[in-house]
Structure formats: C-alpha cells, structure tokens
Amino acid sequence: MKRRIISMILCFAIVACFFQLFASTALAVGDSGSYPVLIVRGVDINGLYLDFGTENQRSCLGEIDAAGITKTLILATAKGLINNDMDSAVDEILIYAHKILDGLACDNTGASLYNVGCYKYPDSVGTYEDFPYADENEMGIIKAAVEHYGGDNVYYFNYDWRMNPQDIAHEIAATVNKVISETGKEKVNLVSASMGGVMTVAYISEYGYNKLNKCV
User: Fold this and answer.
1) Cα–Cα distances in Å, from 67 out to 72, 74, 92, 93?
2) In 106-154, where does DSSP find H-type helix?
3) Most buried of 48, 67, 106, 206, CB within 10 angstroms?
C-alpha cells in the first residue's frame, strides 16, 4: 500500500508540473549572429485534441470542476473510513483521474488509443497573423525572440509530447533542415523548454550538432 500511495503522490506532482507556467525567458544573444531561432516547446497538456481537424475536435482532457473534485474527495474519504482501507479511497481518486486523463491514453506500444493531434506551425512565426503570443510559457519566449530577431527568423516546433523522443527527433531534424533551407543560413539557434530538452537531446544523439549554432 505504501508503494501505491507514493505512486499517487508522484502522479499528482507530475500533473501539477504540467499546469505550472514557465516564466518568459529572454534569449541570450551574445555572439549568436543572425542565425534563425527554432523553439521546441515543452509539455502542453491542454494542447492535444481528440479528433483533431474534424468538426468533433475537443480537448483530450475531461472536464475538471470544483463539484467533481469535491464529490470525489467526499466519496474517497467515506469509502476509506467505512472500509478502514486507504486503498478504497485511492481507487475512487483513480477513477476520477481516469475520466480526466483517458483521452491521453496510449497502448502498451506507446501508440495513442485515440485520434489525437495538435496545432503545428511549419512556417516562420511571422507568417501567422493569429499566432497565439503570450507573456509567459514558450509563447512568451517566442514573443521575445520575434521582437529581437523578427518574425521571419523565428520558428516554433510543436509535437505530441507523449510520443517516443526518437520519433520526435526525426521531426525536429526535418524542421531544422526546413529552417536552414528557407533562411539560407547554415545553422540554427535551438531553444528548448522543459520536455523539449528531452526531445532535443534525442535529436542531437541521432543527428549531432553540426547544424546548431547554439542550444539553450
């Protein structure tokens, strides 16, 4: 039972990290020259959609509300007290968590159980008039990069963060090649946030760093 409680604590800690906002980070320019910037985002738990691109597109996350949380906690507490068993309480919480997170589920091979997709921006950020800039998270980093380098020199790499990093590495490689081809530069500055760092390490392990000027 102790292992199960510890696992639950770790799960909640991970979910809490997903929801935290990363402070906007200014790019260190130094001697980076005029190389284009490619930003690889971290986990965006709200950025994956079921039936993406169809009229039925919707968030992968189930509805989270105060009523549902309160009901679950009451039921969990009641079952724990009645059965004098912590496992009964934990089971009730897991049932609620499953309802919320089921849309993100994968099978034992790592493949998504459902038709899931995300918004991607294959061209330079300046191409998109409705690009979702913000003052925090990766969107804040992109905003700062655009202000410094110009929208034509900034690219944004989004991906399904549940997938195998080695598979994502191939997508990053294709994007790096595209950026180099479109800008006429021989290298790029690669900026990675959170989980994006894992994907970037996978890219470097597979393709090396000959096409990178700087990696942050």
Assistant:
1) 9, 11, 15, 14
2) 137-149
3) 48
